[in-house]
Amino acid sequence: MQEKTVTEAITYRRSVRVFRADAEIDTDLVRQCIENAVLAPTSSNLQLWQFIHIIDKATLERMTEACLGQNAARTAKQLVVVVARRDLWRKRAKANIAFLRSAIGDKPESEYSKREKFAINYYRKLIPTIYTEFLGLLGWSRYALFNIIGVMNPTYRQVRKSDLRIVAHKSAGLAAQNFMLSMAAIGYDTCPMEGSDTLRVKRILGLPRGAEINMVIGCGIRDAKGIYAERFRVPLHEVYQQV
Q: Where in the chain are the domains?
């Protein structure tokens, strides 16, 4: 099977609401598409995401109910749940430090170059400064401080808990798009769903309190009636600006 080009995959991808009942999809191929998902860009390379690939029929039935019974879940052969995991920032920061140290090589930190020290301290000091939280108070204190700094100099301002949630969901969304385009490239179809009872989804999947559902993606092969209408996009001139 020849894969589609990037443009062909983007054009082919549609939000398919009904999948064929008589067409199965290969679990290993879906997993390969998830492998492509984790190559997406991610803020500070923290990779604050998780992908839950559901193939168990009983779990699919429970998920259909949690997805409000919509056809894209009910007829899906498999589901992929994209989860934002801001709560894993400490673990991911440590993983980045370990990776950097292995890349730098076996030498004492006193011999690190300026660039190497900066990279290590980015995850050892700056990330904890931004992500550490206590009852929402530290975030607002950081926000006030950074805005004072910003009066005289350009500065990063997305330091509140609400800002960092958005950052994690943006990264998860980028990964989800990688996944859906990879599926489209091999002729598989998807439907990203926001309509779900996210609390029930988390309970079904045994996710911790700090995990947040980004989207649930139905997977299968499109039925002849699976696309409800022709694609509509507002004119490019309304959304494109050249400066």
A: 1-243
Determine what percent of the chain falls in helix, strand and coil, rounding each to the nearest 5: 50, 10, 35
Q: What is the CATH number of domain 1-243?
A: 3.40.109.10
How far, in whole angstroms, is CA 147 from its chain's centroid? 28
Backbone conformation region of residue 113, classed left if phi is above 0, alpha if psi is from -120 to 50, else beta = beta
| Stated pTM of the model | 0.93
- Evaluate if residue 144 carries a pLDDT over 90: no
On whether the CB atoms of residues 68 and 193 are closer than 8 A, the answer is: no
d(CA 219, CA 234): 27
**Rama region for 30: left / alpha / beta (φ>0; ψ in -120 to 50; rest):** alpha
User: Would you give the DSSP letter of residue 220?
Assistant: E
Take residue 232 and report the two structure tokens written for it: 């509509």
* pLDDT higher than 80, residue 118: yes
Q: Is the pLDDT confidence value at 149 over 80?
A: yes
Give every strand in the sheet of 78-84, ordered side by side. Answer: 49-54, 78-84, 212-220, 189-193
pLDDT band at 167 (very low <50, low <70, confident <90, very high): very high
112 phi/psi in degrees, rounded to 5: -65, 145
Is a pLDDT exceeding 80 seen at residue 234? yes
